[in-house]
Structure formats: structure tokens, C-alpha cells
């Protein structure tokens, strides 16, 4: 994936990032890729306020991956002690399966080490997403055994289509510690 360029998002990027994340996870457009949550959650996955908060927060970054100046992927990094939280990870549904996600994750890992000296990446994934969890495990993440409740009633995270959603926590050492 040498044709990808990376940069930190700015406030001007917020609308495009919201569109990318929504297209990767919700609605019919998300079904073009394999990361869809459309059968688990309806409604929005994120909004401009949430993305703008990530962009503006100290100790965090929203990393963008672009190809020929077009946004094709993004991820959030947030310093939490010696661990970097990895989230808001999205790749355009029409570009999924081509290595962008793996390349972006590798870049995020390197950025967490360079920016904060992070010794691990941590993330949460909806427990019912076994295919996605398996993909992360192939990339060195391990399920920690910790589970976190899904924020039922907070429509900023979507409208659940089932009553058993929860998050599993995954973690992997950064490349600097492997």
C-alpha cells in the first residue's frame, strides 16, 4: 500500500470522516464491505460533534489514510497512560479487502509509539462481531477477557436491533514492544 498517504485530521475534515464512518458501518452502503453493523444497529454510528471532539482533544489524533487525495480510511488514537486506545477505525466499503485497513493499523501502531511511547494498542469490538474479532486476532490482538456494556439508550451509538450487545476488549503490544 505504498500509494497511501497519512495525515492528522483537521476540523475541515470532520464532514468527510463522518461520511466515511457511516458508510463503513451503517445503512445499505455498508453492505458493500464486510465491516457492516447494519444487522446489529440502526441509526448513526457517529456525528460531527463526536468526530470534532476527537480532532480537538489533547492526547488524541484522528489519522487519515488517503489515496490520490481521496479519503479511504481513518482511525482514532487516544493516549490512555502507556496504552493507546485505537478506535473510529473505518475503511471505505468499496476499498475493503485490499490491505488499506492493515496498512492503516500498522501506521497507527507506529504513530502511538512515536507520539506517546505507547506499549500497547487497546480497542473494543461488539462481541457479536466474531469475524471482525478474528481479523484483529490475526493481526496480533488478543481478547483480554474484559467486557464492557453497550450504551443502550444513548442513540449516539446507534439503535440496537437486539438486547444482548456488549463490547469485548482487545489488546496487542505495539511494534516497539513485540
What can you see in these coordinates?
With 178 residues, the protein is of the alpha+beta class. It has a single domain (4-177), classed as Aminopeptidase. 26% of the residues lie in helices and 34% in strands. The chain contains four helices and nine strands, in the order βαβαβββαβαβββ. The strands form two sheets. A seven-stranded mixed β-sheet has the order 1-3-4-5-6-9-7, with helices on both faces. Helix 3 links the parallel strand 5 and strand 6. Helix 1 (14-25) packs across helix 2. The protein starts with a strand and ends in a 5-residue tail after the last strand. InterPro entries: Acyl_CoA_acyltransferase, Bact_Acetyltransf, GNAT_dom. Keywords: Acyltransferase, Transferase. It is an enzyme of class 2 (transferase). It holds the Pfam family Acetyltransf_1. This is GNAT family N-acetyltransferase.
Q: In a nutshell, what does this entry contain?
A:
The chain has 178 residues and is α+β, with helices and mostly antiparallel strands. It has helices spanning 14-25, 48-56, 100-116, 130-138; strands at residues 4-8, 41-42, 60-67, 70-80, 83-91, 120-126, 142-149, 159-160, 166-173.
